[in-house]
């Protein structure tokens, strides 16, 4: 558990800087909430927040904007497809594996 806390503390500062460029904090938070809602359809809610932190670290600004725009209907086809693409990235997979969770199959 301590290892998990240390790893997460390293990722949290990255949440405001997505895809190498600064994003609006509210937009990033909204996108993360949407991502969590999608991930919880295939993973335990207890791990969804951690999986989302890994995914958000490697999400582009365009993806953040699209996810945030889908807040009203977060589990629609477009949103799930975007989350699948993000979750398939090697860096995201390595991050999730490093936390000891399996990558959710959406």
What is the share of helical residues? 55-70%
Strand order of the largest sheet: 1-2
Order of helices and strands: HEEHHHHH
Average of the residue pLDDT scores: 81
Uncertain segments are 12-17
| Structure class | mainly alpha
What spatial form do the alpha-carbon principal axes imply? globular
Gap between N and C termini, in Å?
26 Å
Main beta-sheet strand count, sense and barrel state: 2 strands, antiparallel
Number of strands: 2
Number of helices: 6
Strand share of the residues? Answer: under 5%
Cα-atom radius of gyration: 12 Å
Structural summary, described in words:
The protein has 106 residues and is mostly helical. The chain has six helices and two strands. A hairpin with a 2-residue loop joins strand 1 (17-18) and strand 2 (21-22). The longest helix has 15 residues, at 25-39. It is globular. 33% of the residues are buried. Residues 12-17 have low confidence and may be disordered.
Defining key terms:
about 110 residues; mainly alpha; two-stranded antiparallel ribbon; 6 helices; 2 strands; about 65% helix; about 5% strand; globular
Concise overview:
The chain is mainly alpha-helical and 106 residues long. The protein has helices at residues 2-11, 25-39, 45-57, 61-69, 77-87, 90-99; strands spanning 17-18, 21-22. It has a two-stranded antiparallel sheet with strand order 1-2.
């Amino acid at each position: 558990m301590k290892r998990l806390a240390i790893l997460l503390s390293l990722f949290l500062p990255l949440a405001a800087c997505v895809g190498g460029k600064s994003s609006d904090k509210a937009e990033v938070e909204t996108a993360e909430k949407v991502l969590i809602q999608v991930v919880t359809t295939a993973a335990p809610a207890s791990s969804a927040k951690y999986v989302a932190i890994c995914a958000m670290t490697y999400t582009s600004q365009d993806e953040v904007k699209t996810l945030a725009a889908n807040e009203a209907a977060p589990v629609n086809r477009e949103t799930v497809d975007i989350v699948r693409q993000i979750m398939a990235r090697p860096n995201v997979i390595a991050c999730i594996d490093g936390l000891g969770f399996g990558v959710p199959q959406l």
